[in-house]
Automatic annotation (TrEMBL):
Transmembrane annotation, as ranges: none
GO biological process: endosome organization; endosome to lysosome transport
GO CC terms in record: early endosome
Organism (species): Macrostomum lignano
Residue ranges constituting the PH domain according to the UniProt record: 39-134
Gene3D superfamilies: Pleckstrin-homology domain (PH domain)/Phosphotyrosine-binding domain (PTB) (2.30.29.30), Zinc/RING finger domain, C3HC4 (zinc finger) (3.30.40.10)
Domain of life: Eukaryota
Keywords assigned: Metal-binding, Zinc, Zinc-finger
Keyword tRNA-binding: no
GO molecular function, one term: phosphatidylinositol binding
Chain ranges of the FYVE-type domain: 168-227
Protein's recorded name: FYVE-type domain-containing protein
Length: 233
């Protein structure tokens, strides 16, 4: 399983010690996590669906952040490749595949799928994250998503979430024109919908501010939607 641990604050010294331990696990490569008002709510080891394969990640849920990193080979106490997501605008949903043991985290800057050890553990992660988002934002409705969409979506209030990328192994063909991928015709991901597309179907770029201030590759379908003039009210 994920080794999920939820902490109920008994005193501030315990919380400070836990956060310091997380900081130390990332060494000098991590950001400062200890600050007034921040609470470590839960932690556990999960499998993250990456572009080519699933990889182990140590995940830490704070009352305002979701932090994760990769265990260092040969030293499971050390973590590298720290990623920090602000909980503002985050939504989660448990998936039906894999017996319900997986769930998605969708944020404006990055979205992805995580596997827990069981459907029960996945449900707990979803519950904990939603609770923290609701407490952080003061609105419980923003933390839940039941649309089933993997593409970029409106969070409400003008905030847009990044798409969950379709893994490379999910399709051998372009999801727009059905061209077969090969060493010559390579896979690309549309940064707006997350689909696997060929180069001819993704010649355009667009600035997606929550993800990057540089233009990112988008598929023809998304480019047409993004470039379409807004309808007057």
């Amino acid at each position: 399983m994920s080794g999920l641990s939820r902490f109920r604050m008994s005193n501030s010294e315990q919380n400070i010690e836990r956060i310091r331990r997380v900081e130390q696990s990332f060494g000098s490569s991590g950001v400062t996590l200890l600050q007034t008002g921040r609470v470590l709510v839960a932690e556990g080891t999960l499998l993250k669906v990456c572009r080519r394969r699933t990889q182990k990640r140590r995940v830490f849920l704070f009352n305002d952040l979701l932090v994760y990193g990769s265990p260092l080979a040969g030293d499971c106490q050390r973590l590298v490749q720290q990623r920090v997501l602000q909980l503002a605008g985050v939504q989660t949903r448990q998936l039906a595949d894999e017996g319900g043991a997986s769930f998605q985290v969708m944020s404006p800057s990055k979205s992805f799928t995580l596997f827990a050890g069981s459907a029960e553990d996945a449900a707990k992660w979803v519950e904990f994250i939603r609770s923290c988002v609701a407490d952080h934002s003061g609105d419980s409705s923003v933390a839940s998503d039941s649309t089933g969409s993997t593409g970029a979506s409106d969070c409400g209030g003008g905030v847009v979430r990044a798409p969950v990328w379709v893994p490379d192994g999910r399709s051998s063909n372009c999801m727009l024109c059905s061209a077969t991928f090969s060493l010559i015709s390579r896979r690309h991901h549309c940064r707006n919908c997350g689909f696997l597309v060929c180069s001819p179907c993704s010649q355009h770029t667009w600035v997606l501010p929550a993800q990057s201030d540089q233009p990112l590759r988008v598929c023809d379908t998304c480019y047409s939607l993004l470039a379409e003039p807004a309808s007057p009210n």
